[in-house]
């Protein structure tokens, strides 16, 4: 029965390259599908982000190139309603963009507030961002540039990554001192989870119940948002030591995890097993980030230092009959 | 060269002389009396933002050690070596610790050694001679 289940699920797992996107002129550091699955955004060391449109036949085509950053664009966040994007320059500023027109109206941050990460709240009108300056902490802003709330405290550690659960109930922050802080937005109650190794990135599940972190000890840990687990689920087999590598939930029933890797491959795990079930080859160098299409469980995108984005789908040759 | 994940230190920091990546803290110095063929060096209990090379056996002034060169994660230059195994009992305290050569770093005790060839990366092999 298990083998049969695995075999069935394998037909739904992306294992082959279906398209190679070559719009960027330098390393591609980030990639993420929109919540409705109709767009993909990518961002690069060429200081641009690109919005790609997912067509009916599953192919992607370039819709907008977003220019304006002076540094590598290291992070992008889709608003929950998919009408806006936030692009984060690498230790630089934050820019909100209109997805339909590809235009930017404001720039947030300056020399006094160097943004390291950002996340939207469910209303698609407010967002939080973390700073790499320990004096600044985490701030909540609206799209007009007004600071709504701050969690500055006394000498907060530098913020590495930030996320808001899709239900809007929790703000999860990753700090340079290897701590994960889960803040309940309503009650301001806070839980702290300590890791033993530096944490490079954070990703929350679509049902708001779990999150995963990439560690530079070459492990991915899954924790529950409610904070009841004593120990994380661990996933390993990939290589990560020097770079920021990102992973994500996805696939059928969101029961899979995919991650980039420093050895040019994409790794896929079933959440029930700490060893990968698929290792995808094709990129020629480090894969920095992966994203699973939330509406098409068989579609995965990966961003690489080889300047390309690969779109992956099931291998047709493996289907029987 | 993807997006490096670099650990930032606070306090009295030793940084790479070439690219200013943080490498170690003053408080983690175990000894300042180490030497390499390029001059004086520090022994640190802990270093960050380095990659480790291959293990190799090296005859040091204090005996045979298994060491690995360490390289700055930011610019790739060699900055010292890490002791993996000390073969003599009296040297066991070094295991897991790292030597960083003074001329490779800028730091709180203001080393101004400009007499060394910064471009000379032909590192045949370090050696040490600590307190006798």
From TrEMBL, chain A:
<feature type="repeat" description="WD">
    <location>
        <begin position="21"/>
        <end position="54"/>
    </location>
</feature>
<keyword id="KW-0853">WD repeat</keyword>
<comment type="subunit">
    <text>Interacts with RANBPM.</text>
</comment>
<dbReference type="InterPro" id="IPR051350">
    <property type="entry name" value="WD_repeat-ST_regulator"/>
</dbReference>
<keyword id="KW-0677">Repeat</keyword>
<dbReference type="Pfam" id="PF00400">
    <property type="entry name" value="WD40"/>
</dbReference>
<dbReference type="InterPro" id="IPR001680">
    <property type="entry name" value="WD40_rpt"/>
</dbReference>
<protein>
    <submittedName>
        <fullName>Uncharacterized protein</fullName>
    </submittedName>
</protein>
<dbReference type="InterPro" id="IPR036322">
    <property type="entry name" value="WD40_repeat_dom_sf"/>
</dbReference>
<keyword id="KW-0963">Cytoplasm</keyword>
<feature type="repeat" description="WD">
    <location>
        <begin position="66"/>
        <end position="107"/>
    </location>
</feature>
<dbReference type="GO" id="GO:0005737">
    <property type="term" value="C:cytoplasm"/>
</dbReference>
<dbReference type="InterPro" id="IPR015943">
    <property type="entry name" value="WD40/YVTN_repeat-like_dom_sf"/>
</dbReference>
<feature type="repeat" description="WD">
    <location>
        <begin position="280"/>
        <end position="312"/>
    </location>
</feature>
TrEMBL record, chain B:
<keyword id="KW-0862">Zinc</keyword>
<feature type="domain" description="Yippee">
    <location>
        <begin position="12"/>
        <end position="109"/>
    </location>
</feature>
<dbReference type="Pfam" id="PF03226">
    <property type="entry name" value="Yippee-Mis18"/>
</dbReference>
<comment type="similarity">
    <text>Belongs to the yippee family.</text>
</comment>
<feature type="region of interest" description="Disordered">
    <location>
        <begin position="111"/>
        <end position="132"/>
    </location>
</feature>
<keyword id="KW-0479">Metal-binding</keyword>
<dbReference type="InterPro" id="IPR039058">
    <property type="entry name" value="Yippee_fam"/>
</dbReference>
<protein>
    <recommendedName>
        <fullName>Protein yippee-like</fullName>
    </recommendedName>
</protein>
<dbReference type="InterPro" id="IPR004910">
    <property type="entry name" value="Yippee/Mis18/Cereblon"/>
</dbReference>
<dbReference type="GO" id="GO:0046872">
    <property type="term" value="F:metal ion binding"/>
</dbReference>
<dbReference type="InterPro" id="IPR034751">
    <property type="entry name" value="Yippee"/>
</dbReference>
């Amino acid at each position: 029965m298990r083998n049969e289940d695995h075999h069935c699920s394998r037909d739904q797992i992306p294992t082959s390259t279906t398209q190679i996107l070559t719009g960027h002129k330098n390393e591609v550091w980030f990639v993420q599908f929109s919540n409705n699955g109709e767009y993909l955004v990518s961002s690069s060391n060429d200081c641009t982000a690109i919005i790609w449109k997912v067509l009916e036949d599953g192919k992607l085509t370039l819709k907008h190139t977003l220019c304006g950053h002076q540094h590598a664009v290291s992070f992008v966040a889709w608003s929950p309603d998919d009408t806006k994007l936030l692009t984060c320059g690498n230790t630089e500023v934050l820019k909100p963009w209109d997805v339909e027109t590809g235009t930017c109206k404001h720039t947030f941050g300056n020399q006094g507030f160097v943004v390291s990460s950002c996340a939207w709240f469910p209303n698609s009108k407010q967002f939080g961002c973390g700073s790499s300056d320990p004096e600044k902490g985490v701030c909540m802003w609206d799209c007009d540039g007004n600071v709504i709330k701050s969690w500055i405290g006394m000498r907060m550690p530098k913020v590495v990554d930030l996320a808001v659960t899709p239900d809007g109930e929790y703000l999860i922050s990753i700090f340079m001192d290897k701590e994960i802080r889960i803040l309940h937005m309503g009650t301001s109650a806070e839980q702290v989870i300590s890791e033993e190794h530096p944490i490079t990135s954070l990703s929350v599940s679509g049902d708001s119940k779990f999150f995963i972190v990439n560690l530079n000890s070459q492990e991915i840990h899954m924790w529950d948002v409610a904070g009841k687990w004593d120990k994380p689920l661990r996933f390993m087999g990939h290589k990560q030591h020097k770079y920021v590598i990102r992973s994500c939930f996805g696939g059928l029933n969101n029961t899979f995890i995919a991650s980039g890797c420093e050895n040019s491959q994409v790794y896929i795990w079933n959440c029930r097993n700490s060893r990968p079930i698929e290792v995808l080859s094709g990129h020629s160098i480090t894969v920095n980030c992966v994203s699973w299409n939330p509406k098409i469980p068989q579609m995965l995108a990966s961003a690489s230092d080889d300047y390309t984005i690969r779109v992956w789908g099931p291998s047709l040759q493996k289907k029987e009959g | 060269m993807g997006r490096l994940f670099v650990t930032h230190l606070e306090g009295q920091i030793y940084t790479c002389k070439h690219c200013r990546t943080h490498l170690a803290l003053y408080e983690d110095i175990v000894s300042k009396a180490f030497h390499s063929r390029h001059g004086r060096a520090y022994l640190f209990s802990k270093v960050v933002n380095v990659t480790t090379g291959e293990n190799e056996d090296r005859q040091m002034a204090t005996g045979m050690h298994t060491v690995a060169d360490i390289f700055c994660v930011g610019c790739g230059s060699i900055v010292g070596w890490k002791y993996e195994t000390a073969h003599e009992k009296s040297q066991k305290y070094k295991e897991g610790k790292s030597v960083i050569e003074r001329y490779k770093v800028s730091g709180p005790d203001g080393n101004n050694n400009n007499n060394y060839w910064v471009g000379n990366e032909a590192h045949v092999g370090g050696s040490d001679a600590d307190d006798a």
